[in-house]
Specification:
Helix content is 72%, strand content 0%. By secondary structure, the protein is mainly alpha-helical. The protein has a domain at 42-74. The chain is globular and about 40 Å long. The relative contact order is 0.07.
């Protein structure tokens, strides 16, 4: 089963987005930490997480985020 099918199945079971995130995180401590940061409103922690992941991938966070935000006309 692919990711989209998993999410659809969780939605059909009545899970909230928060519940879906927890199910998808499973036993992964890094993803569980990310979900916890989201639950606690730790925007700076989430941003730092994203910056670190992108840096590891050789990407520039600011550049990529600017391009991403253009999709929303903000």
């Amino acid at each position: 089963m692919n990711f989209v099918e998993n999410v659809k199945n969780f939605m059909l079971k009545g899970l909230t987005p928060k519940g879906i995130a927890k199910k998808l995180a499973g036993d992964n401590p890094i993803l569980n930490n990310l979900v916890s940061m989201a639950e606690n409103g730790d925007e700076k922690g989430i941003e730092k997480f994203a910056m670190n992941v992108m840096k590891e991938q050789g990407m520039d966070f600011e550049k990529e985020f600017t391009e991403f935000m253009k999709n929303f006309n903000w």
